[in-house]
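WARN  no MSA supplied for this record, continuing single-sequence
INFO  ligand: S-adenosyl-L-homocysteine
INFO  echoing inputs
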Amino acid sequence: MVARELQGIGMTSEKTRRRLVERLREKGISESAVLEAMAETPRHLFVDEALSSRAYEDSALPIGRGQTISQPYVVALMTQAAVNGKRPEKVLEIGTGSGYQSAVLARLSDRVFTTERIGELARSARQRFHRLGLHNIYVRHCDGLAGWPSQAPFDAIVVTAGGVVPETLLDQLAEGGVMVAPEQTGGHQRLIATTRAGSGVLREDLGAVIFVPLLEGVE
Ligand code: SAH
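INFO  complex generated
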């Protein structure tokens, strides 16, 4: 059943997926490893079956509990900035959601540690990873604002909810590592890539984005 499902939809969506990847390339995603990881990740398996026909449109989609799976272009942009032309050993993600961003990162790094504050989403993402054989993703149901201190430092940190990023997270970034986060200022969010360089940091603005809010505590 699972095999047929993976194969059946997988086969037809392979072409649609390639088309999406072409669009991402046109929009400026240039890192071939990132494009390849996007091509290999079956996004339709990260959304509700009723929405699977829309899985390869370049748009965010609802995943329940008022949350969304990010737009593929934004996932590619964040991944490209986080990976930064290397192969990170350890990546931390805040906001597992559907698990799609983690699955893309899992193809480009050794291990992904992902945190989700909503228990139900953490559980279903864990099941998806298991079903897809993605054994290098570790999911924790917790408030990700505290990071994952026992696994720090991380070569990359990806925050997939918009808000004010606490210093605690930046402290868990390795030297030369990059943190990508939608930072909220006033009513606007900008995607910021922060690179730890020596005693300081370099900040790069990757543009305007719209993410669900970064919230405290667990549900
Ligand atoms: N990366 C996800 C995007 C999910 S939307 C994907 O690819 O599908 C952002 C997610 O961040 C939501 O599921 C939300 O519950 C979660 N979130 C918000 N604040 C959080 C926090 N402090 N810690 C952990 N997760 C958080």
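Residues 67-70, 94-95, 97-98, 100-101, 115-118, 121, 143-145, 160-161, 212, 214-215 surround S-adenosyl-L-homocysteine (CB under 6 Å).
INFO  checksum written, moving to next record
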